[in-house]
Amino acid sequence: MKSIITRHQLLPTIFTVIGILSVLIFPSIGDAVSNGYVIGLFIGIYILYQIISLLFYKKDTYRQVTADIVSIILVLFILWELLTNRFGILTSFVYPTPGEVLLQFQEDRAELVVHLFSSVRLLVSGYLLAVCLAIPLGMISAWYGRLDRVMRPISSVLAPIPPIVLIPYAISILPSFAASSTFIIFIGAFWPIFVAALNGVAGIDRRYISSARTLGVNNWTLFRKIILPAALPSIFTGLTIGMILSFILLTAAEMIGANAGVGYYVKLATDFGNYSQVVAGIIFIGLIVTVVMTILTQLERYLLRWR
Amino acid sequence: MSTIQYDNVGVTYESNGQQAIKNFNLSIESGEIISFVGPSGCGKSTALNVAAGLIQPSVGAFKMDENIITSPGTDRGVVFQNYSLFPWMSNLENVRFALSQKSKKSNTELIKQSKKLLDKVGITGKSQYVYPTQISGGMQQRVAIARMFALDSPVFLMDEPFAAVDEITRKHLQNLLLDLWEKETSRKTIILVTHNIEEAIYLSDRVVVLYEGEIITTKPIPFKRPRDRQELENERDYLTIRKQLLQAIEGNA
């Protein structure tokens, strides 16, 4: 028998239906958002799931994972809606309902895009600066034994200093907030990438170098075609850690001294006690991080496809 | 063309002061196939690495045509047990990369030449475009052999090239190597490190037995070429030589 809903789609479909039913069965205790909005939220998640599922139409395990993750998200939304807006267990104003947060998103969408661009600009400039300096410096340090022996102890002292403590000082000594947060992100991302590049080169099996030497390659080719690709798996772990740290530092800096950016948006909302804005901001940041990390993972998968 | 000479070579490792090889004297004629055999740690790989220019002799000198060799070069092609190929390059790219190091030809020309070389060793079609990790160990060594021939060096150095593959694949690879070697107009000089006596006898003109860093026996293998494995194993001399070599190795082990 051929059914419309495939094996993978069973759980997300069930939870979408449960979500819609719970909205229809239990009366709202008054969040000033119509039921249609919340039902729209569940249907929206379900449609998004179907689109993502189509992208993975060839990979069975991915489809299963997507279905499971979507199910968990749906369950969380149902619980959230029931606890705040249906059963009235979390009624204080610090617990906005899903509908309120959704409305907030709609209201603030233009503002959020402005904050997004401000944040991404700082993130990209600080992170790229770190990448451009840390990878060559780390690799060069590993290659020259004398530099390696100096840089290892220095990096093991400097790297663990939490860059977060530098934020207020950087803001006071640097001319603008953009300059100081770029600097902080740079510091945060630099050390993990530097150490990864250092270890990546130091850990290359000498036999690859020997093999290349017997082909008569010059130093520049040796670096580009042998050392860089051989160190790349290690470098990518540094790039990932660096990116996570960059994001933490970016939002932290924005909460301390900015007048734009997603961190600033959340901080301002907290100061004014607008908690649906706070939750909307947190979810928005979660989405940004997911997109950025996905891009990085796809890049890694492409460049390390030989593994 | 390329006469190779180990002139009283000794290698002492700085790290532990151990003498890996000592009083190593050996002359190899152009076009000869020589095998180094011996128990693990006898210094056979060290002797090969001296020839490759990857290890510097502490005393004495390694010479090719009277020139002292101290670094790797394109005049010697090397194949290791593994780690010869670069896993981040496709099989085709591995060969093309080697060719591009000494040829000034256009890229399309180099790719064409690389494909031809891979065809010759039996890596055809789709296998040329995949990464080394996507094919078997035996197939990888075929690519490594293709790359070695790509360099067209007068001297080939092979460090246990067939040790990591199964018995049948090993025999195929040995035949492939001999076949390619015999087809060359100017025959390559090959130094082969192996722990397989049968392999050494089948392939070599001379087998050098090492023990604790010293040459204890050099045994000429008198069989005519091209050799047939079956015929060879039925020869009376074959068993005698095999026995003598085994005794030479085991008598000191």
UniProtKB/TrEMBL annotation, chain A:
Pfam families: BPD_transp_1
Residue span(s) of domain ABC transmembrane type-1: 116-297
Residues spanning the membrane: 12-30, 36-57, 69-95, 122-145, 157-177, 183-205, 226-252, 272-297
Family membership: Belongs to the binding-protein-dependent transport system permease family.
Record's bilayer topology term: Multi-pass membrane protein
GO terms (BP aspect): transmembrane transport
Domain of life of the source: Bacteria
CDD domains (UniProt xref): TM_PBP2 (cd06261)
GO cellular component: plasma membrane
Residues forming coiled coils: none
Record key words, sorted: Cell membrane, Membrane, Transmembrane, Transmembrane helix, Transport
Protein name as it appears in the record: ABC transporter permease
Subcellular location: Cell membrane
Main location: membrane
Keyword Transcription appears in the UniProt entry: no
